[in-house]
Every structure is written in C-alpha cells, then in structure tokens.
Amino acid sequence: MINGHGGNIFDKARDLDCDPMDILDMSSNVNPLGPMPGLMAHLHEHLERIIALPEAGAGSIIRAFSSHHDIDPNKVLAGNGTTQLIYTLPVALKIRQALILGPTYSDYADACRMHGVDFRFALSDEKKSFRHTLDAMDIEPGDTVFICNPNNPTGTLIPSETIESLCRRYPNIRFIIDESYLPFVPEGEAKSLIGSTLPNIIVLNSMSKIFRIPGLRIGFVVAHPGIIDKISTYMLPWSVNTLAQAAVNYLMTQKQDVSEFIEKTRTYLADEREFVMAGLQSAPGIQLFPSTTSFILAKLDRLTAEAVSRHLLNYRILIRDCGNFQGLSSQFIRISLKTHDVNQILTDRLRACCENAFS
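User: That's the sequence. What structure does it adopt?
Assistant: Structure tokens below.
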C-alpha cells in the first residue's frame, strides 16, 4: 500500500497511550456538524442487514444518487470511497501521461505511480495564494489532467466555467475533477461540473467529508457512459458495503433535510474560518491563506510543521503537517475546522506557540 497521507489518529493515540477519541483531530477534513441528524438511527435500524451481501453493483444507490442530482444513471458509478475510484482510473482509462495541478492530494500521484503512469505537476504560486491561472497553463503533452476543486490543502476554488472552457480547448484530453470538498462551498451545487455534457470531464463525488461518514467509504464517479463502461470493467463486485448503501439511500431521499444541513454547515464554517483567521492574524510567524472550504492552510516562520505538530500533540491536538505535499515545504500546516470550543483551543495553543518562538 502506498501511504502518502498525514497523521494517523490511531498511531498518535498509541504514542500518547490514550483513546483515539481523546485526541482533537484537526487533521481530518470532515464536517464538524456531522453526521447528519437521523442518519445514525437509520443505520442502527438496518444493522442486521450486514448478515447478507450488499448489492454487487450498488445499483440502487446509483439510481438514488442520479435522481437526487437529476443526471443519467448510465453516467454514474459507485465505489468504496473516491480513493478506490482514483486508484482504478489510471488502469481503466489506460492513462499514459498525466498532469496534476498541485500542491494537492497525494493519491492522484500515488495512483499514477502504482500503475506505472508518467506524471508531472503544474504547481501554483504561493505569491498568488496558490491560485492556478489555467489560461497560461501548459496542458500538453499528456492525456489526463487531475484537478481537485476546491483544492486540498490550499482551499482554493477554480470557477466551473473556467474549467469547462479549458476542457473545450482540449477535447482529446480527459479532465478528472475531484469535487469532494465542493459541498462546503457556498452555492456549491451551482459550481459543480456534475451535470456537464462535455465527454472529456470526469467528476469525483464524495459523501465522506460533508456527511462525516469516512468510515463507510462512499464515493461516486460521474462521466460519459463510455467512460463509465471502461471504469466498471475494473471494479470489484460488492465494492460498496451494506451500511454504506443504506446511508446513501437514506441521504438521497432526504433532499430538504440534506439541503438544510449543508446550508447550516456552510454558514457555520464561514463564521469559524473568520474566527480562526482573526485569532491568528496578529500572531507572529504565521501566515494563513484564504480558503473556501473546511480547512485552512498556514505557513510558519522560524518554526517547522513537525515542531508545531509535535508541540500541539502534547495537548492532544492533531493537525496536518504538509511537508510531504509536492510544492509545499516543512513550513506548512493545515488546520481543519471543528467545533467552536475546539477551534478556540487550537487558536490559543498555536498562537502561544508562535509567540514563544519570537520571544
């Protein structure tokens, strides 16, 4: 298994000799308000279903997802989280050379590496707050482009019309758009490419983050039916487990409740982003970058991400050391927003850490 991810809460709990739930995990980008009300009770009611196999092809949740988003079910495939889909795409699409817009989620490069695919990065500029300028980007040579939108770990968002314009200019190149964090963005539905009719756009959709159910592993890919056929050839049967299917069927039939839950989340995160940014704005030796989603990227001065992460872990606070992101350095950390009380603790501890470094 290729492992390019950050801190593992279970490993840290063993090091601290504590329960994993005793750690304030601000390294994981999940909804602090989740799971959605009613979901856990629904899963409990359907727990007995684990004694039987789930649907082999997850057809019912594909239909539910398609109906919820008003798209053709022949354009949708369900998987064991977007991670399974990311690692399936290089072999299913026979990708030869990929371009990855970075710094970004490590699994795009790891998936290419696993399958022997040549890849290169187009790295954004820190001076421009890591925003990509697609008009000036050298896309060719290559047959596939990976774009995380909004991007992890920078929190930047590329307008959907800008991406679509790029896709039209390069009709022979496939564009894989990972929208896992788009539900956190205000009016995210209108910014999604999930309904695009362009045949070279492939959209990844995750329920793990917005509904805070990463342990269930639920992901979808939306693309032209011909591309879906290619991907399905490499998908294992029973990829989506019974409880995951029960969760999707529940969530996709609670349209009004889901809409209200997501809107409440967006409002909450906007307030908490402002709170954390304001609390650290005048702290010495730390620069916070603008974000559109549930996490904030920060750059340190005089301190390393490893040193700050180690210091915060003494208080059982886990953040993301971004030193292993291509295009970042050992000075970068990522903070995932949680409840207000937890965000207050993090702000106080991180501010004190920075102040001590400059005292």
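The chain has two domains: 9-30+257-357, 48-253.
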